[in-house]
Structures are given as C-alpha cells and as structure tokens.
Design goal:
Elements lengths: L5 E5 L2 E5 L5 E3 L4 E2 H19 L5 E4 L9 E3 L12 E4 L6 E4 L4 H9 L2 E6 L20 E8 L5 H17 L5 E4 L5 E6 L6 H18 L4 E2 L11 E4 L9 E2 L14 E2 L15 H11 L19 H5 L23 E9 L3 E9 L2 E7 L11 E5 L12 E3 L7 E16 L3 E8 L7 E10 L6 E6 L36 E4 L2 H11 L3 E4 L3 E7 L4 E5 L21 E9 L8 H8 L4 H10 L2 E11 L2 E2 L5 H11 L7 E3 L6 H10 L4 E5 L10 E9 L2 E12 L8 E10 L2 E8 L5 H11 L9 E2 L3 H4 L3 E13 L1 E2 L5 E2 L2 E5 L17
Helix pairs in contact: 1-2, 1-5
C-alpha cells in the first residue's frame, strides 16, 4: 500500500487515507498502510465478533514508541456514516462507535486505533427513552494473566483446568492468546444471562480453580499474591468493562495480535504469541476458529451478513464486501436481481432487497416460465446490496466458484413477507427475459439458510388479470426432466473438520443428525439398471478393483454416495484390511484378495434416482429416497444408520472403535465437490493426508529398505515439508511402498524448507503418491508431531491435499 495520501472507496463509503508510510511499530518497521492492510484482510472473521458491540479504542497516532490515549467517546471528526450508540455515564451519555463493516474498520485503522476493546454484551433493544442499556451477556470471558515468574505455558495449564469445568457445564470454551502476556478463554452463554450473572459465574469458577490448584491459580487482584501464579481475572464480565477484541492488534513493541488458537496448540511447550503476518496466513488457511462463539439467527431476519463474510476471502474473489450498515431504504420500490450462476452445477440466484440486505434463494432449474411448473428454491445466506450488479468469475477453490452473469434485474412490489411466504410482483429491465411477473415463494421445509421453498409463477397479477407468458424461458425449463447428472460433473461433497463441541453447538442451532465414519474409501456408485461404475473422490475409476459391488443395489438407475469398507472378524471396519485391496491391478490378484477380504458399500446419500437430480433436495428428503432404493438391495449394499442425537452418535462410535462421526444439517442440499460446513466431521484421533516426496534409508531393523517417509502438504509456494513418518508400517506396507516409490526416484527436491538434517541422506521421489497419517498435533512451525503411518490413499489427488484442521474429539 503506497505511502502517498489517497482516497479509497470501501463499499459505498469514501475514506481518505493519509501518512500510509508512517512507521507505527519501529521495532519491525510496520507502517500504517500495513496496519490497514491487516485489518482489511481479517475483516471477514473479525467483524462478526465486533457486531453490535460498542468499541473503545487505544490510539497511537505517533506509533507505539510514543504515548497512547484511551478513547471511549467517538471523536468529533469521525465520519457521519459510522454507526454509534449512547451509553449512560455519570456526566451524561457518551456515543460509542459500532463497527459492523469494513469501512468502519478501515477508518479506525486510519486514525491509528490499534487496539479495539469490546464488552461481553451486544446492543439488542432500546429502552423507552432511547438510551440502549446493556443487560444481557452473550459470552463469558476469563483472562488468564501470568504473574512474575510464570508465562504462557502455565497459563495454558490453567486454561485446560478451566476447560474441563466449562465443558462439564455445557459451555465449551475457545482459547485466544492475548498478544500481550496471557490467554483469554471465551465461552458462549445461553439466552437470558445478565452481565451480573456472568460475572458471578466467572468469579465462582475462578475461586473453585484457586481452591483446587492454590500453588498456581489466584483469583484475587492483589499484586502481592501473584508472584509465581496465574491470575484468573473474572472481572471483565462486568457490563462496564471491556476485553481486547479477537483479531485486534496490540500496541506492543511488535505487532502481535489477540489470536484465536486451537487446544492442540496450547499443549506445545514452545507456545508463543502470534504477530499480524502469522495471523493473516492462518485466517486465509483456516478461517475463523471462534465461529461457534457467534450467535445464530435465521438468515432472512435482521439482515445478517455474518455468513456471507465468513465464506469469502477478500482479495481472492471479486465479489463485493458488505457496505456500511444500516442501509438507508430507497424511496423507490425495492430492487431485485436474478443471476445465472455457472458453479459446480448451473443454477439461478434470485435476490430480493429487504431489511438492508439481499435475501437470496438458489433456483436450480431456473425461473418458471408458466404457472403450471413450480421451481425448487433453496434459501442461501444474505448478500450485501452491492451484489445487485455483480457479474464476474469467482475463482476455482473459492466458495461458489464459477462464472456469474445478470439474467435480469429491476424493481419489485411487495404484497406479503412472512417467515413462510413471500408474494411480490417483479418487473425486469426493458426487453429483458422476465417482463412483469407476480411470484409466490412458499417455504416447505427448514428455517433460514438452506430451507427449501417453492417458487410459483402466479396465473394472475395483483389485480386478478391473467399474466402474459414469459418472453424468454430459462433454458433448463423446457422439455422433460433432465436425465441422471453427467458422471464427469459429480464429485463427493466434503465435510469440514470440527471438534465434538462444535458439532454439538451446530446441532443445537440447526437440528441434530449424525452418522458414523466408517474408516473406508469414499466412492460414488452409478447404477444404470444393469451394471455399476465406481469412482473415488479424485475421479479415479475403481470398478474393476471391487467386483463384488458390480451387482449393484438393484432396481431403477441411481447414483449413491458412501464408503467402501472392509470388515474385520468382529465385523468392524478395518482400514488395514482394506489397504490389501486398494492397489491391486491384475484380475488374478483381485480375485485372490476378494476370497480373503470382502468389501461392502455403506451408502449414506443418494444423488439421483428415477431419472431426477436430487442434489438440491434437503438431506432429510434424500434419506427417505435412499431407504426406498436400498430396501431390496443385496448384502453388499448397506444402509448406514442415522442418529438423531450427536451425543449418542459420539458415544456409539467410541464404544465400537469407529474413527468418528459426521454431523449433518438435515436441511442441507448436496453440494457436489464442495467442502461445506453443513457436514462436520469429528475424528477421534487427528488424521492428515500427506504427499510423499522422499525416503530416508533404513538402518538397524530396516537396513537397505525404507527407514522413514518425508512428506508434505501443498501450499501457495509448492509442497511444504511437514516432517518424517517412521512408524506404523508392517512388512507388506513397506514392500508396497518400495514398489510404488522406486520408479519415481528423481534428483529434484520436491519440497521447500526442508531442514538440512532431514535432507542429508534423503532419496527424493516425484510427489504423486498420497498417504494418510495419524499424529498428535502440528508444531507452531507446521511439522507433524508423533506421526504414524496409516496407509496409502490412491483415492486422493495430491493437488487436493490440504491441512485438515483441528480434528480432536
């Protein structure tokens, strides 16, 4: 970002940026321009945590080496468009800023407000006199502050003790290294808890931990008692106090950040605070680690753009960031847009301006051309008003990747807007395909995002006159229903890694549905009524490898999603047994292995049946069809059970030694090839796909053979080295690895940043083989700790391997 003064447009706001090359952190040379860039990069994850909270600021206009000042009341020169609310003080009300959009965040960075502090409550209602008085807390915070002689390691130990107590209370906490000295723990609170209640609860918890661990924990603020101990500061739950906001910079010597962390990271003895460049990389790679802390609201109520922001990476997609809120209603009719979206599957997006946002539905088969055909519509997340004129290419790898054009746009006249029914008359642009049409949207299942609706083109207009036929029909609406989807267009929908606590929290908001993870190979099965084709997650054809599945499920043509599973002698899934089937090529080898190790197909979804594409249908409805499809299937096709309680699924999976569960939103459509948080996978041990890039020769018990594998994970620079794997192999696995890797030998080093000690005697191979490992955690520099080999994954493409996140149970 240039040091020259410049006027920039952020959403609908114009901001003048000055002195961008002024150094605010002399120790690192970090400039105001870099501070603004940081807050712009983290805005999608930071803004939801600031939303509706008054912000107090600590400003360093001349940099952190000079004096700072604490600002509660909004400065007189602040732009008029910045939201603000009054809070009563002894000398009268003070107006505080509410930072709900990127423009507000950029403005605060421009005036060198490095630290942003917020209370643990949000503005939710207005009193009769117009002064909004906070009463309800929505989260609990504990500030673990190390005294003389202790540090982050001791804070982490106290944090784990506090976690155990809060978990038992049904309030799973999330850790944040404060960027200063200690650790903050945040836990969501149920509705109706006052700030006084939250303070009392935190105080009791602090005293209980002090009683159990008096040598390390103190709950008394007196400095005389703090040496060699960690102060568990409960007082910041007071309605008049604030805490540094998650993702805020700190005004310290270096640009450290109040950074969300995983519980695995807190176990590292080398745990340290993160600076802003590290946090930007983490946000790009992992998103918001505090997502479960956010309140959940139906997407169409109150104009909530939290989900929109969380799903998009600024700088990677041309889609607009939200403008300042609240949006001032237009004196004219509200606007609408219909966009043709060539994503993984072609569909049309209908968006209606309402409540300061664009309330949105995806319409897979297009806008109905006559009143005799209804269209399925699936509610998506609210979009910002700026999206009205968006057209462009969303890059591959981003949410909604594909090209988007404007099919038609104009104004609409609203007759009715209820939670379950919307009636409106829309008039498109002159000469456009829509014309003037009266529509009804009727909700059929679910609430909020991913609820399903019928879009009906009404026969008559609002005055009862017959409506004209459409001038141009949406092209997929003509003719008979589409046949089964093209095989090449389908890829399995993927789950997002999550903790058990995150799965429980999501279930409490969206409904509980959970399935076991079967420790097999993911596959799609296409049955044409006579024969089967089987494809893996990478698109690899695996039909010949598993001939016992060729008989198919029987009945009409279908496409099924599920896992190929080998069972042990206790009838439990065994990945090691399945390994003996996965890489065979000759018919004789396959026949011999089949006689020893049979496989089953555990089906958990159906993507097409009876000649119809079912992917837009809610999961609960697809499940009913799947049960019918498999009612008369042979023994090799198994219908996976569904639990209506996440806790029961977790308990059953642990009791039967399964690898984990997948918690699913029962209202979710099937998003081919997408990794979607509608499915959350909880794995009891951490697992990670890796790409093999080299071997170190064996010694002692493995002379002349493979001693360990050198493995990596793709990143923006190529293949990042993540360490060695030297255990978990049996003789058969070593022989198979040697057979696969010997022809791949190369003199080129496939990794970047390989330590000299690991590279000293390495034999490099072309990075085309994918395997899976179990491990304890990643170190802060990204190396696998205590990795153990699980087996090869020929069903995975090396380019698709990515860090699989926190998978602890």
């Amino acid at each position: 970002m240039s040091g020259k003064a410049q006027t920039v447009r952020v959403g609908t706001r114009t901001i003048r940026l000055t002195n961008l090359d002024k150094v605010l952190y002399p120790a690192t040379g970090t400039t105001k321009g870099e501070v603004i860039e940081y807050y712009t990069r983290v805005a999608p994850v930071m803004l939801p945590h600031l939303r509706d909270r008054p912000v107090t600021r600590i400003r360093w206009p001349e940099g952190v080496a000079e004096p700072a000042f604490f600002a509660k009341e909004l400065e007189a020169g602040a732009p008029s468009w910045l939201r603000r609310r009054g809070i009563a003080h002894s000398r009268g009300p003070k107006m505080y800023p509410l930072v709900d959009d990127l423009a507000g965040l950029v403005y605060l960075a421009q005036v060198a407000s490095l630290e942003l502090h917020t209370p643990q409550w949000r503005f939710l209602h207005e009193d009769a006199d117009g002064d909004e008085r906070p009463r309800q807390a929505d989260r609990l915070v504990l500030d673990l502050d190390p005294g003389p002689g202790v540090g982050l390691a001791e804070c982490a130990e106290v944090a784990r003790w506090a976690r155990a107590v809060l978990d038992d209370m049904g309030m799973p906490p999330l850790p944040v290294t404060s960027g200063s000295k200690g650790i903050h723990l945040y836990a969501p609170l149920p509705d109706g808890v006052t700030t006084d209640d939250a303070g009392a609860l935190a105080h009791e918890l602090a005293r209980a931990l002090e009683a159990d661990h008096p040598d390390l924990v103190v709950s008394d603020m007196a400095k005389s008692r703090r040496e060699g101990r960690v102060l568990l500061d409960w007082s910041q739950n007071n309605g008049a106090k604030t805490t540094i906001a998650p993702y805020s910079l700190r005004g310290r010597e270096r640009p450290t950040v109040a950074a969300p962390r995983t519980w695995q990271e807190l176990e590292a003895p080398e745990l340290a605070h993160l600076d802003f460049s590290e946090v930007m990389r983490r946000v790009d790679a992992e998103g918001d680690l505090l997502l479960t802390l956010l309140p959940s609201r139906p997407a169409h109520v109150g104009g909530d753009l939290t989900t929109y922001i969380a799903k998009r990476n600024p700088g990677r997609t041309p889609e607009p960031l939200p403008s300042a809120t609240p949006v001032i209603p237009s004196p004219e009719l509200d606007r609408f847009v219909i966009q043709e979206h060539h994503a993984s599957r072609l569909h049309w997006d209908l968006r209606l301006e309402h409540g300061g946002v664009l309330v949105s539905w995806a319409v897979p088969r297009g806008i109905p051309a006559t009143s005799t055909k209804n269209a399925l519509a699936v509610m998506t997340e609210d979009h910002p008003i700026d999206y009205l004129d968006f057209a462009g290419e969303i890059p591959r790898g981003e949410y909604g990747a594909g090209s988007m054009t404007i099919w038609d746009t104009g104004r609409y006249e609203l007759e009715k807007w209820r939670d379950d029914e919307v009636i409106f008359t829309a008039e498109g642009r002159p000469g456009g395909p829509l014309g003037r049409v009266r529509f009804a949207l009727i909700r059929t299942a679910g609430v909020g995002e991913k609820s399903t609706w019928l879009l009906h083109r009404m026969k008559t207009d609002a005055a009862g006159r017959t409506q004209p036929a459409a001038r141009v029909e949406a092209r997929t609406d003509a003719g008979p229903p589409d046949p089964l989807p093209a095989w090449g267009a389908l890829r399995p929908m993927l789950a997002v890694a999550a903790s058990a606590a995150q799965a429980r929290a999501r279930a409490s908001r969206r409904g509980s549905w959970a399935e076991a993870k079967w420790d097999g190979i993911r596959a799609l099965v296409r049955w044409d009524g006579q024969d089967v084709t089987i494809r893996g997650r990478s698109g690899r054809d695996m039909t010949a490898i598993y001939p016992e599945l060729r008989a198919g499920p029987g009945g009409a043509p279908v496409i099924l999603d599920g896992e190929i599973v080998a069972l042990d002698n206790r009838h439990r899934p065994s990945f090691s047994r399945l390994q003996q089937r996965m890489n065979l090529t000759s018919a004789a080898e396959i026949a011999a292995a089949r006689a020893r190790i049979g496989v089953h197909f555990f089906a958990f979804d159906v993507l097409a049946a009876d000649g119809l594409d079912l992917t837009a249908m809610p999961l609960r409805e697809r499940r009913g069809i799947l049960e019918r499809v498999l009612a008369d299937a042979g023994p090799t096709y198994v219908l996976t059970p569904v639990f209506d309680d996440v806790e029961a699924a977790l308990a059953a999976s642990r009791a039967t030694d399964l690898e984990g569960i997948v918690a699913k939103d029962p209202a979710s459509p099937y998003r081919s090839g997408a990794r979607d948080e509608a499915w959350l996978k909880v794995v009891f041990t951490r697992r990670q796909d890796v790409v093999i890039g080299g071997i170190r020769p064996g010694r002692a018990s493995r002379p002349g053979g493979i001693g360990s594998l050198l493995v990596g994970i793709p990143d923006q620079h190529g293949l990042r080295y993540v360490g060695r794997v030297g255990s978990g192999f049996d003789d058969a696995a070593l022989r198979e690895l040697d057979r696969l890797l010997t022809p791949l030998r190369t003199s080129a080093v496939p990794f970047h940043h390989v330590p000299a000690a690991d590279a000293a005697d390495a034999l490099w191979v072309r990075p085309v083989v994918v395997g899976e490992v179990e491990f304890a955690r990643f170190t802060p520099d990204g190396v696998l700790r205590h990795a153990r080999w699980r087996g090869m994954r020929p069903d995975r493409d090396p380019l698709d391997v990515q860090v699989q996140g926190d998978q602890s149970g």
